[in-house]
Structure formats: structure tokens, C-alpha cells
Amino acid sequence: MTDTAAQEQRLAKAWARPKGWAYFSDVNNSVIGIWYISAAFAFMLFGGVLALIIRTQLAVPNNNLVSAETYNQLFTLHGTVMMFLFAVPIFEAVAILILPAMLGARDLPFPRLSAFGFWCFLIGGVFVCGSIFFNAAPDAGWFMYPPLSTEQGGIGADIWLLGLSFIEVASIAAAVELIVGVLKCRAPGMHINLTPAYGWYVLVVGAMILFAFPPLIAGDFLFEMERAFDWPFFDVTRGGDPLLWQHLFWIFGHPEVYIIFLPSIALLAMIIPTFAQRPLAGYSWIVLSAIGTGFLSFGLWVHHMFTTGLPSISLGFFSAASEAVAIPTGIQLFVFIATVMLGNVVRTVPMLYCLGALATFIVGGLTGVMLAVAPFDFQAHDSYFVVAHLHYTLIGGMLFPVIAGVQYYYPFATGKLLSRKLGIWSFWLSFIGFNVTFLPMHLTGLLGMPRRIFTYGALRQWGDLNLLSTVGAFIFAAGFLLFVWDCVRPKSSEPNAPRNVWKAGTLEWAGKVPADDWGLRSIPQIDSRYPIWDDKTLLATIDEGKGLLADAKEGRRETLVTSVLDAEPTQVLRVGTPTWLPMLAAIGLGGAFIFPVWKLWWPTLGSALFFLAVVLCWLWTGTAEIPEKQTKDIGDGRRVPLYVAGPQSTGWWAMFITMTGDLTAFLAVLFGYFFFWTIHPDFPPIGIDGPGWQWPMVAAGLAVVTWMATLGARLTNAAGQVTLSRGLLVTGIIAAALTGVALMAGPWTTGLDPTAHSYPAIVWGLVVWIVLHLMAGMIMQAYALARSIFGKLTPRHDADLWNVTLYWHFTGVCALLTALVIGGFPLLQ
Amino acid sequence: MSAKPAHNELERETGYGTDLWRVIAAPVVWALHFLFCYVYGAVYCAKAGRDAPLDQPTIVVIVASLVALALIGLSTLQIWRVRARSLTDNDFEFEHNTPEERHRFLSHVALMLCVLSAVAVIYVTIPMLYLSTCR
Amino acid sequence: MRRARLNIAGRSARLASATLPAIVLAACSPEQSALHPAGVDATELANLFWFMTIGGAVVWCVIMGAAIYAVVGKRRPRSERFADRFVFFGGVAFPTIGLAALLVFGLALLPDWRGTDAPDLRVSVVAEQFWWRLAYEGEDGVRIATANEVHLPVGATVEFALTSTDVIHSFWIPALGGKMDAIPGRTNLLRLTPTKQGIYRGVCAEFCGTSHALMAFPVMVHEAADFATWLAAQRQPATASGADAFVAAGCGACHVVRGVSEAGSVGPDLTHFASRRSIGAGTLELTRANLDDWLIAPTHIKPGVRMPSFATLPDAERTAIVDFLLELK
């Protein structure tokens, strides 16, 4: 047996897919990616069926196909499913599938986390969708405005709140995974200026998720406290305010639109250069545009609230930012057109969809510019004009690009080509059907048809336009089904697509057809943006195993970690192998989110403990493993470490990113506190005393003790004083427990009743939030202590302690802030 | 920028010219400016009542905009200096695989973001020229 | 100065609006249309709409023209510099200037709308699931309660003070101007100035529950004198006779008929019920047959409505109630 054949065999063994039922325990990105995409499209089809029922109901005036109650569930679920179960997850799904190959990594840094995210998404999605078959679906709109959603009986709103919070966990998990992937897992030599445009978009979108989703999670937390325990955050009779929810929802909701749009546009940034047969003309413009859009998109949320009676000064600011965001958004479209102008176009189905996406999205963009002018929005808001606008942006900015992406990457994922003929048919049906559906809606809206009405009278004369829209919807559906059929029809008799079928230049096309489980045979040195075009020997280098990491000597799954800016190899990361743990963890967490819907507190607690046990087992057996040797030869005479800790490790980055998101959520809850201050002339309200300043100050002191003890534990451990370090960890655990007690003692001893008024409710809300974090922190400290005692954490191998300390940097600051605000702010009044 | 021997990867990378934090400095200034203007305006109007005049907020917002523009200008100036040193050949493709090129690229993006952020700050100031009360 | 600019744009927009969409619009009911303006604000916004639409259409054609040309056009070697300039002028310079102009132009409308000078008429609106509780402020400051039908004098600036007692609603009369939400715990102000006499229609625009679709109201714009007559009539107590059946059936537990029963005010004030055009907040036309149906099966006509069914009432008694109600001119 030759040397390279033996290497290949070892690689194959290390990366082999589990067989039989164990298939579902797989964690490799190429498998998870396919599951994820399939599930997202399945939910999309479900949402599409809901849309067709909606359109049929509206086809003629005074129709009674469905009742008002059913209709309200239908449109609520349609919006919810399309947004939370298709638009956002499809980004995560596609990125998980293609990003590692694009960057030349064998897998993402945390494959088990991807699997966990997928199972969370699937369980949560089935739960939310299934509700409609029990006539229990949420029916207050996908935006769940209180008081409508708080007053409603039934479990619909709880299903929405808890089910989606659960799914948001998957989004945060994906954000962590993808940010670290782009920053730390690029092939050697792939400097940040050589990273594929897609990578930049993923980075920006990942960061946006960290600032956009947490406010919604915080909002869900407050909302569920109101529904389950009657804490009056949104109840005006007890000092609450429904607008608080609107702020939290749209601080999430508007960036979310760009979280959906940017990664889809990113697909165009990969497709267009390939079919123009030249590099993107204006790579820097694209990066500028991605970053600029990412920032500006956080200054738009109030444009969903233009008619809520906010002062015109607020409308003005948000109107201005909403116009400004059109500039970076538009730039990328011009870059695409310029690329095509400079290149030699190959006319393919993906390009057809790109053009269709452009034509559609620009309409949505222009109506967006119109709606951003606040006075015009007073007319168009909540009318069918907005329905038309948002579908033009989402279908032109997301669906068509994603279909272009599926058409383009289908051979990459499956080795087979899609039919050109079916593709052209499905495009024209979809494109024409879409425009017949939604173009008339602009007019319907301005003729006075409001959104979310289950029927309308014949006197309004909207019948013809609505009938036209309904006919269009069915044409659109036919086109889409044709595309789905093309994807799922059996193709085993067809020949495989040739390697790099589109003659693309980027690294994901360097793989063989059919693809090997291990990805590339060896990881090449990269020195251009389009390595396949620029380096004619690249494929040979890869295939002959002359790149890095061409072997799996120890039989482990390994991928390279490189530095952030210049992609110098810094570590060989041993990534997770197939296991049931992520699925079990998702089931446990799912139980903890789903049982509260029926207020089954014991099963909830049981599920949460099960989740905790599984996660601890997962971490204990699968992370921060002390390697058998310090460094490893990766080929080309280079040796890099197998174990790193602190800011150089992927785990530290993951913790940093997660905690950034967590901090955002905390700030959103804190925003609630100050929001109530702005709306009440007296805050704290007269007659409600508490929580006093004494106990919060004690808590603040103890929080600092905990924080410093944890930091001290890391420093002393690193200095070799293991016993002292363990002692400090024990001190930390005790101090953390006392912090929690002291924090609760304030509102408790002063008799703050959280159901009485929004002020005690928000104080308790902050306290509960911190106490939960203290508990998590104590578990982490205990975990680090146990790792130290069992010899899995040593002065040299201290990654766990680095990560726990980082957690406490964040939690320490949050606890301190909370204590200072609830104790100190009332003194200022 | 720095010729010190690098102790670890992070220091070596961040020590050399423009890093990712420098790139987002200008948009962060925009974000802070926007947040300040909005929060200030909203709190002012919430506390002063519907018919309160906007004389004071107008001045505050304009001053805040000038400060923001100055900060963005400062950032621009810094980057411009590095850029002028390294971007002599008007090659805007930045596709070579060297740390210097990466640095030139990030400087260029940072510079463009400065311009965008400045435009956005000015946009956000425009409404103040019209409004006279909190209504 | 600002006004002058606006009018120039407005005139060109009106010219366009007269020809292009006339065919489509002619076929539509103008009662509830933002494109058939009958108020100062609606007119400005319709002009703004046509102006932006035409501008947008031009922009769309130019960009798509460039894109299609790029795909099918003849190949000419072009430099990277060309691409850079194309992106700069098309994607940066033009939008920056264009959007700034639009912002300046569009926001100029805001202050006019939200004036602080005293309005000619004040109307308080309390939105409830799924109807409108209205109160006009008479000249001597007296409140004149009515429901589900808005009457306005032409040419007068009316200030609506909007709030809600249950969930969030939104008050929208497309023909007169923009909408404003009615939010529990807050009072929002909306100013409208009708310019044309006629009958229009307003609706609830914010999703408010089961029968959100059936929460509307007719809007009558009268000559000032006619309006004054109407208001004076509304101020009077009811004069109808034969209230016995109404009282006996317990209608008074929810409805006020001033002069007859003023105990409960859960539902709409019915003092001058017969002077209105509709039943159930714009749901049915007011006719004897519809009224009878409404008393028999209100939740069938309007799901989720709180009005109970009076189907079990003997026909004679229900007819007596209908007679009484139809007399409440």
C-alpha cells in the first residue's frame, strides 16, 4: 500500500459517516447542512400552503372559506413560519453547508453545536407548526403585539413565545459557529482581504444576530413572565406599556430583515463572478456595503412604529436612517452589474434567477425608500402596499437569490445537476406568478385595503385586484413546486456532474465529485481570491496530498485553526465526532421550553436538569481534551500546537461571542427599566418603596468578590498554585450564591410585589435574570473545579478556566450594573 | 506602525496597521451618535410634554453631530495618512497575499466607511432643521 | 419657500396622475382610497406618492436597463476603473444626493401635520373591539357622545384624540389623510382637514382581533352649516317613543339612549342610532331586515363581537325593539 493510499484510508476512517439509524447522530457540516436546508424548505412549503389558503379566502368579496378565527391563525403562522422557520434558518443552513469548503476547512469549529442548533430548530419548528392542527396556533399576528396577545386565552401566544425563543437558541448557536468559522478557520494564506465575499457577509450577519436576536429573547422573557405569572410589563392599568414590546420586537425585527437579505445577496456575490468568468469588480465596495448595511440596519426599527404617536423628532431620526441604509444596500447591486459588464456572461439558470432577484428586489427597495418617508408611511402603513413591499424585498432579496444558490450549489452538495429546462420553466412561472400576485397589491393598499382582514365587502371594489393576486399566487406556487420537484426527483441514473462544473474560482469547487466525507484531500496554501483560476496547479497540489493536514495519523477528525487577519496556522483543532448528545440536549432544552406552555412545572424542571446533565457530559467528554502531544506536524515542515487556551482558542471566541449576545439581552431588559422611567412622571412610583440601597450594595460587593475570585483562580492556576486556585473557585461559588441571595433580599425585604406594578416587576425581572446567570456561573465554577481535581485542567492546559473567567467578566459586570441601578437609581429621583 | 517583536498572534496582527476594530470605528461613532440623538430626543419629549419647543434639542443634536463628524474626521485623517503612504499605485483590488496588502485593504474599507458614516450623521441631523415642537 | 417647492413637484405629479393610472382608478370605489384624496393631507400624500412612484420607475428602468445590457449587450473591453466609477456614481453619489433631497422634501410635510395651533374642532375617539366610541366637543365645551360614524365640516381642521380601552387599534380615513394608532394608556393626536364634501369610509388599520376586518365607520363631510345642524341634533336626547321593549330586553345594560336609559355604556351610544348609515361599525347597511338579523345573530355577522344574540326573544318584542331603534333619528 502506498503512502498516500494509507493516508486516504486513515482520513476516510476518521471522517466516516455513521451507518443505519446512527446516521441521525452525525454532526459533520455537510450532512447537517443538507438536513437543515431540507427542513427549512419543508417549513417553507408549509408556510406557502398557508399563504394559498389566505389568498383563496381573499379571492372574492365576502368569502367564507375559512372563519375569522382560522384566518387569523393562518396569517400569524404564515408570517411566523416564513420568518423564523425559513428565512433566518436557511441562511444558517446554507452557511453551515458551504462555508467550511469555501474557506478550506474540513468542518466548522463546533460541529456538535451545529447539530444541536439543527435539532432545536426542528423540534421547535414542528411544535410551532403543529399547533394549527389542534386549532391552537397563535393568532395575534407574527409581531404578537400586546395587549391583544396578552389578553388572549388559550395557549397560542405561549406556543409562539416559547417555541420561538427555543428556535432563537439555534440562531445564536449558528452565529457563534459561523463567526468563529470565518475568523479562525480559513485556509492558511487566506488573508482577510482574500476571504470570499460570502465570508464577509456571514461575519457581518453573525455579528448582527448577536445584537438583534437578544432583545427579542429579552422581550419574550418579559412577555412570558406576564403571561405565566401576571407581571404587568405591558399592562397599562398597572404601569406597563405595550410600546415597550414594540420597541424590543422591532429592534430585533428590522435588523432581521437584513439578517435575511445579506446572506442571500452573498450568494449572488459568489454566483455572479463565476458566470461572468471574472473576479467581482469592487470587492472592497462589497465589504463596505455589508458592514455599512449591518450598522445602519440597527437605526431603522422605529419605522415600523411611525403611526404609534411617537414625537416627530423620533420619526425624523428614523426616517433619515431608513433613507441612509439604501445607500450601502444599493452599492452591492451596482457592483454586481459592473461585474457582469466587465465579464463574459455564461447564461445559466442561476444567472436567470439572479436577474429576477435584481428586478424584484429593486422594486422592494424603491418602495422601501418611499415608506421611509414618514408622512407617506402614515398612509401606507398596515395597508396592502406594505404587504407588496415586504414581499418584493423578501422574495427578491431572499427567495430568488436562495433558489439561485440552490441551483448553483446543487452539484456541490449532491454531485448531480438540476435540469436546465425545468429551471427555466420554474423561473418564469415563479417570476410572472410573483409579479401578478404582488404588483397589484401596491394599488390595493392605496385603495384603502388594510392588512390582516379576513374578508372585505363587495362595495369596496377590491375584488378584481384580489382575484388577480390569487391567480398569481397559484402560478407562483406552480413555479416553486416545479423547482422543488427538480430538486427531489430521483437522479441516480444521471451521470455525476464534472468536477468544478461551473468553472468557478473559489475553493469550495475544488472538491471531487462525488464529494469525499473529509472534504479536501489536503488543505492548500491560498494566495488569491479565486485560487482555482489563479493557481493552475492547485487541484493537483490538493489531490496529491501536498497541502497541509493530509493525514489523520491519530484517527481523529482535525481541522486547521488560523489567525484572524492573516490566516497563519495556529492550532490543529480536533473537532467532534458523531454522537447523540446534541440531539438529546435539544430534546431536553425543548422540554424545558415546551412544557411551560401548559404550565407543567415539574416536567419543565426535569427537562432542564436533563439538558444540563447532557451538556455537562458533552463538555466533559468532548471539549478541551488534553492531547497526547503538545504539537503536531501538519506537513510542509510546520508544527502547530494541538492545545491552546484563552483568546487564541476557538472556545474562548465562542464564549466571547455568546456572552456578547447575552449582554445585549441583558441591556434590553435594562432598557425596560429606563423605558418605564421615561413614561412615568414618578419613578419609582409613589407608595412603592424598594428595593432600598443596602442589600443591592451588599450584592454589588459580593459580585465583585465572585468575579475577582474567579479571575484569581485562573491566574493562580496558571502560576502553578493549583490548591490556591481551587480554594478561590470554592470561594467564588460561595460568593456567587451569596450574591444571588443578597440581590433577592433587597426587593424581598422591602415587599416589592411584582404583580402590583411595572416597577417592582422590572426590578424583579432584572434580579431573576441575574440570579439565573449566577446559577449558570456557579455550575461553571464547579465544573472547572471538578476538571482540576480530575486532572483534566492543569496549569498548562487551562482553557476551561479561561472560558469560565470570561463568562464571569460579563456576568460580573451585569450583576454589578443591576445592583447599582436597582439600588442607586431610585436615590437619584 | 509597530516594529516591536510580536509576543503572540493577536498582538502581531493588531500591532500591524489597521485591524478590524479600526475598520468599524466610524460606523460605531455613527451608531453612538444616532443612539444619543434618539434617546435624548425621546426622553426630552417624554418629560417635557407634547407641545414643548425643540430649541434645546436642536442645539444639542447639532453639537452632537459636529462632535461625531469631528471624531469621524479624526479617524479619516489617521487612516488617510496610512493610506497615502501605502496606496500610491491606485490599485484598488487589494488581492495580494501579504499582510501589507491586507492592511491597505482594511484601510481602504475603513476610509469608505468613514465617508458613509459621515453621510449618515448628516442625514440624521436633517430632520432637526424642520421640527419645532415635540408633537 | 418650502411650500413653493412642494407645489412645483405637486403639479408635475398631478399631471402624471391625471393620465397614467386614470383607467385603473376609474373602476375603483373612491370612498376609502388614498388615491382619491378629499383632504389636505391626503392630497399632499397622493402627490408625494405619484412623484415618488414615477421617480422610482425611472430609477428601476435605468438600473434594469444597465443590468440587461450587461447580460446581453455587445462585449467591449472595459477597465476596472470604469467599474469603480460606475459603482461610485450609480451606487454612491446619485443615491446620496437623491435620498437627501427626498428626505428634505418628505419631512417638510411633518410640521404642517402636527401643528400646535388650536384646531377648529376636537373629536375624542376611543377604539374598542370592534367599534368606535366618539365624542364631539361642542362650542361650549360640552361632550356630545356618538359612535361609529364621523361627521366633519369641510375645510375645518379637526383634531382627533385617539385612545383605546382594550387592544391597539389604528384610526385611518384614507381619503382624508394618514392613520394614527389608538393605544391603551396613551392619547395620540391626529389632525385632518377635509377639502371635499362627500361620503368616505374609515377603518381600523392595526390588527385588533377576530373581527378586525369588520371595524370600520362611514365619514360624512358636510358644509359647515349642515355640520352645525347635525351636531345640534346629536346633542339632543332621544325623542322616540316605545322604549319599553328595549328596556325590558335589557338593552340598556350596555347601550345609552339619552333620555331613555343611561345606565350602561359597554356598547355604542344609540341615542341617534337611526341617523347613522350602518350597523356594527360599518359592517351592515342600516335597514330593517339587517337590523333584525343583527339582533338575532350578531356573532354570526361579526365574529367575536360582545353583543349577545336576541334570537330567543319573541318576534313581536324584537320587532318592537327594531321599531324603536329605527325611530332614533
From TrEMBL, chain A:
Signal peptide: none annotated. It catalyses: 4 Fe(II)-[cytochrome c] + O2 + 8 H(+)(in) = 4 Fe(III)-[cytochrome c] + 2 H2O + 4 H(+)(out). Pathway: Energy metabolism; oxidative phosphorylation. GO terms for cellular component: plasma membrane. PROSITE patterns: COX1, COX1_CUB, COX3. GO terms for molecular function: cytochrome-c oxidase activity; heme binding; metal ion binding. Belongs to the heme-copper respiratory oxidase family. Residues 15-510 form the Cytochrome oxidase subunit I profile domain. One of its GO terms (biological process) is oxidative phosphorylation. Its EC number is 7.1.1.9. InterPro entries: Cyt_c_oxase-like_su1_dom, Cyt_c_oxase-like_su1_sf, Cyt_C_Oxase_1, Cyt_c_Oxase_su1_BS, Cyt_c_oxidase-like_su3, Cyt_c_oxidase_su1_bac, Cyt_c_oxidase_su3-like_sf, Cyt_c_oxidase_su3_a-hlx. Its main location: membrane. Residues 653-827 form the Heme-copper oxidase subunit III family profile domain. Keywords: Cell membrane, Copper, Electron transport, Heme, Iron, Membrane, Metal-binding, Respiratory chain, Translocase, Transmembrane, Transmembrane helix, Transport. The chain crosses the membrane at residues 34-54, 74-103, 115-137, 157-185, 197-217, 257-276, 283-304, 324-345, 352-374, 386-410, 422-445, 465-485, 580-598, 604-622, 652-675, 695-715, 727-749, 761-785, 806-828. It is a multi-pass membrane protein. This is cytochrome-c oxidase.
TrEMBL record, chain B:
The chain crosses the membrane at residues 20-46, 58-80, 105-131. Keywords: Membrane, Transmembrane, Transmembrane helix. This is Transmembrane protein. It comes from Devosia psychrophila. The lineage of its organism: Bacteria, Pseudomonadati, Pseudomonadota, Alphaproteobacteria, Hyphomicrobiales.
From TrEMBL, chain C:
One of its GO terms (molecular function) is heme binding. Residues 118-233 form the Cytochrome oxidase subunit II copper A binding domain. Residues 237-329 form the Cytochrome c domain. GO terms for biological process: ATP synthesis coupled electron transport. Residues 1-26 form the signal peptide. Keywords: Copper, Electron transport, Heme, Iron, Membrane, Metal-binding, Respiratory chain, Signal, Transmembrane, Transmembrane helix, Transport. It catalyses: 4 Fe(II)-[cytochrome c] + O2 + 8 H(+)(in) = 4 Fe(III)-[cytochrome c] + 2 H2O + 4 H(+)(out). The keyword Iron applies. InterPro entries: CcO_II (IPR045187), CcO_II-like_C (IPR002429), Copper_CuA (IPR001505), Cupredoxin (IPR008972), CuRO_CcO_Caa3_II (IPR034236), Cyt_c-like_dom (IPR009056), Cyt_c-like_dom_sf (IPR036909), Cyt_c_oxidase_su2 (IPR014222). GO terms for cellular component: membrane. The chain crosses the membrane at residues 49-73, 85-110. It is a multi-pass membrane protein. It is found in: Membrane. Its main location: membrane. Subunits I and II form the functional core of the enzyme complex. Electrons originating in cytochrome c are transferred via heme a and Cu(A) to the binuclear center formed by heme a3 and Cu(B). Belongs to the cytochrome c oxidase subunit 2 family. This is Cytochrome aa3 subunit 2. It comes from Devosia psychrophila.
